[in-house]
Amino acid sequence: MKRRAKERGQSAAEFGLVVMLAILMFLGMVQFGLYLYGLSIVENAARHGARLGSVSQACAACDAAAGAMSALNGQPVIRDPSVEILAPGGIVGSTVQIRVTAHIPMIMPGGDLFGLDKLKTVISESTFRQEGW
């Protein structure tokens, strides 16, 4: 009887530790899922922008940047998107290359301590050959 009185709060303490670890693991998985979703959005925007630039008849770099930014507008996960033109194209057979960068919000408290700070920035590049008509 005396031994049971000493262990009365042990199960509550163990439950609290297990629940905290489970919540941290869940938030880490959600953060990784947000990273993959944001990466998919950025990759599609880079591909869309480079494709529009490759078929442009006027300013390939202008159309590539505008196409990528239009694909990024209104997306719920990414913050502060930027488009960088690496190769402007413009001449038939040359390349149009763009880089799209965006940031993902950190939802896990103390995520930087767990090494999740690498999951805050997504970058994608895309290259297409300039087409002629």
Low-confidence stretches: none
Tally of distinct domains: 1
CATH topology call? Pantoate--beta-alanine Ligase, Chain: A,domain 2
What would you call the quaternary organization? single chain
Range of strand content: 15-25%
Give the SSE layout.
Elements: H1 2-6, H2 10-54, H3 60-72, E1 79-88, E2 95-103, E3 121-129
Antiparallel strand pairs: 1-2, 2-3
Helix pairs in contact: 2-3
What does this structure look like?
By secondary structure, the chain is of the alpha+beta class. The chain has three helices and three strands; from the N terminus they run H-H-H-E-E-E. The protein starts with a helix and ends with a strand. Helix content is 47%, strand content 21%. The mean pLDDT is 87. The chain has helices at 2-6, 10-54, 60-72, and strands at 79-88, 95-103, 121-129. The chain has one domain: Pantoate--beta-alanine Ligase, Chain: A,domain 2 (2-Layer Sandwich). A three-stranded antiparallel sheet has the order 1-2-3, with helices on one face. 29% of the residues are buried. Helix 2 runs antiparallel to helix 3. Strand 1 (79-88) and strand 2 (95-103) form a beta hairpin.
